[in-house]
Amino acid sequence: MPYSMKHILNNDPLASRFVGGSIYQALLGSLDYHRWHSPIDGTVVAAYIVPGTYYAGRVDVDDNPPEHLDIDILSRSLPLTAAISTRAVILIECDNPNVGIVAFVGVGLAEISTTKIAVKVGDKLKKGDELGSFHFGGSTYLLMFEGGVSLSLPEDNRGHTDVNSQLLVLNPGPVGQ
């Protein structure tokens, strides 16, 4: 299922800039770090909460259900949940013109949907500054980049990632040139 920029960003006028771009999505377990930090130096150009749906996760299904069992398909469809669940959207204009705008989207999964934004439009950010947080349990977040931004995963970032680890590598590219 493809991601819908229009729906994820709640019809934001900047949504079209992310069509054809890259998305990095990570899942957080209940014991993972649940504060968000800026991935770049830049300026906040939008920060808002999008109200969404709340779905209770199934507790009767383990990670290896029988093949015939129709498991909770909604909670396993990350592109769909990113577009319909309660989420925090923070758009940051990167100081590096080759990056353009980066979207951070914090998505509350299942009944765990409390998000808190700690920045406002116009705030100048340094990489690592706190953006906000989830208040409980498992969640997911997306980093979305404009089309034309070339990214790659570091070789050591193929599984669980520690706090303050490098998530992505920016490859030379012409977005802002």
TrEMBL record:
One of its GO terms (cellular component) is mitochondrion. GO terms for biological process: phosphatidylethanolamine biosynthetic process. Keywords: Decarboxylase, Lyase. One of its GO terms (molecular function) is phosphatidylserine decarboxylase activity. InterPro entries: PS_Dcarbxylase. PANTHER family: PHOSPHATIDYLSERINE DECARBOXYLASE, PHOSPHATIDYLSERINE DECARBOXYLASE FAMILY PROTEIN (AFU_ORTHOLOGUE AFUA_7G01730). This is Phosphatidylserine decarboxylase. It comes from Hydnomerulius pinastri MD-312.
